[in-house]
Amino acid sequence: MKPQFFFNGLVGFKLSKLLLRNPRILPNRSRSSSFSVSSSAALIQDLPSTFEAKPSPLQRPQVGELLLNLKPSVGLSIFDDSLALGLRGDLASYVAMVCILFTSGHRHKLVSLFSDLVLSKPGVDFSFPDLFDTLSRFLNRSGKLLFVLDALIRAFTVCNKPREAFDAVVQLAGRGFVPSPKSCNFLLNFMVESSDFDLVMAVYEQMKNFGMSPDAYRFTILIKALCRGGKFDAAFIVLEEMKETGVMPDVITYTTLIEGLCASGKSEIGSALLQTIIQKGVPVDSVLYGKVISALCKELRLQEAEKLLQDMVKRDVPADAFSYGCLIRGYCTTGNAADLLRALELYDEMVSNYVSPNYFVVSFILQCFSKRGMDSEALEYFQMFKVSGGYLDKVLYNFALNAHCKLGNMDDAIELIEEMKGQGIVPDKIHYTILICGYCRNGEMYNAQKVFSSMVKLNVEPDLVTYNVLVGGFCKHGFVKEAYELMDYMIERGLEPNAVTYSVAIENLCKGGRLKEAKELFKGLKEKGIAQEVILFSTMVCGFLELACAQDAYELFVQLSKQGYFVDQLVCSKLVGELCKENCVDEASTVFNLMLARNVTPDEFAYNSLISAYCQKGDMRHAQFWFDDLVNRGLNPDVILYTTLMNGYCKVDQIQKTHDLFIEMQEKGIKPDVVTCTVMLDVCLKQVQHEFWLSPNRENRKLSFKAKSSKLLNDMKASELEPDVVCYTQLIDGLCKMDYFQDALNLFDEMRGKGLRPDAFTYTSLANGYCHQGEVGKAEALVEEMINKGIEVDHITLSILKRGNRKYRQLQIQR
């Protein structure tokens, strides 16, 4: 049975029943026409045949005409009931319903009617052109048909059918039904939102075929589509095309293009375009300024963003909290101390310009303070914002609460919780967890447990973070039994302790000096098969390192590696570093090789530690091997690593190799630091001393050292590198050995004048110089000064004084 036959039969059946009960449902003209009660009664007799698979005696046009002759509310009711039963009408019934809705003041329901038709189109045996051909006989005014066509296009957008919408518009246009320009623009914008660029261009070309002259809005839609497709060159071409056709771009057009540029990471071009339109006199508001400033800040082009903000103020465009907030967040994001100061200056400027900071701006600053451990400053700004009457939310209270807890102000933290409640803000699990963490940090485990109990009683369900914090606190402060009981309680609450929980327990047992308990827990987890997690292995190795048991950590690492398990890269690097500190270089090298065997590349810290350890041993062959390995693996050696290697070669008197590395470093664009320059001074001194004893012209060698050292010192100053104590000591020592003692004294005075405190090596070098000059008394006075300043006098200094005294006595005898 075809659905439309059933639909027509149902309509006929309902009509007949309604007419028999209430003839007034037909208008007066209908009651006197052929559609009388008696004719309606005849419909009932023909009703069974409408359920057969053959055409109904009640022809479809008759049903449509019946619907047209009913009161609108009755017609709508019958049609809606039929659709609710899943039945679909035919051409005549839809024509009737469109006419009813149009003429009865229910035009807004046309979109809903067509939406149903669009979604059920496969089950309907007529096309949209057929529908409009028939409608044109009833709604013969073009304005009416345009309105209906607009409704149809909007129905396609409601149903999210972009391709079907385009096909329908093309088909209807072929029959002479062309949408209005407004409706075409609406369709074009819908195509843009559907992200189908080909459809956008197809609709745009179709509008040209309709003979529609593009307006600013249509050009703007096209520019938006091009921007979303990343076709910015084409978007600028369209902008020029607008001007050529006499359509001047308005602020919406420019805003669309600027937003597209900024969203695609081209904020520099967006900013330049903004400046251009400002110069052309296009009115720009704070919203557009803010969007460009925001984009610049996301790309960390902070100085450009700040200039734009200054330009905004200069042009009397009100700077708002959004623009200031973007800049403040940008400066806070870098983590640089100078940038944080600039963020605070902008905050003060914002307040002085009567722009009220919102809680987003304040949260950026508080978060930055928190990350840098500046908890007192965080509380200061929190209080300032609170006093100013700013809105405080849970996030801001989080920062303030965390600051109090980190500072150990637990009473103030509790007061803050009560203040929140007084403001109608209900503390959540994050606030309670911060409190628990604060008490654990202070070792107040009773209070930590008390907060936890209160939390549970208030039906604030703890999460894994809360449990992990409390477990860690118990373990760190020796409450091992309580920690295990808490983990059992977790399980009772349906929350299984995970690897992180056990890791926290092991870590804090080690921090509390309870290595035995940590090893027992780790062993128990391994036996239960729970410990097969990288985080647990890593934590146990870290635990040994925490207690300065690098050898035990190494043995566990090797044991785990043999069993096929591994620890994470950071722990490996830490292990290498600690082994190198204890001069266990071979073991550190083994860790390196095991990492590389697993295709895990050590980081720069690990390489630095190993290379430095080999340099300390004077094993430059291995040091150079690992340096080359680092470079071959695509890692970039920094100034510290180059300096370490240079210093190693200098110690074993490979002067030329040190020079070669120094030149290589500079060729790679790596600027020497103070330590590098100090090493090069040592190299210079060794080189000149070596040549000094071999050369017959010793005076030239002395002058050579002075010239080279002076040049190096001047180069440092040109690079704005201030010599430190070690560097000054190296220079003083060299000048003393080259018999430029007065120059050495001048440097010594310069050093103290800069507030640098000479160390034992500085005093010893200068005392040695005095002794060489035969001025033992001044050397002894210098040693006395050392003692008065609390600097320890070692055996080297004393041996220099003894040699000086012997030399002094010999000089006296000779006289």
UniProtKB/TrEMBL annotation:
A Pfam cross-reference name: PPR_2
This protein's record includes keyword Ribonucleoprotein: no
Keywords per UniProt: Repeat
InterPro entries noted in UniProt: PPR_rpt (IPR002885), TPR-like_helical_dom_sf (IPR011990)
SUPFAM superfamilies: HCP-like (SSF81901)
PPR repeats: 180-214, 215-249, 250-284, 285-319, 320-357, 393-427, 428-462, 463-497, 498-532, 568-602, 603-637, 638-672, 724-758, 759-793
Organism taxonomic ancestry: Eukaryota, Viridiplantae, Streptophyta, Embryophyta, Tracheophyta
Protein name: Pentatricopeptide repeat-containing protein At2g26790, mitochondrial-like
Transmembrane segments: none
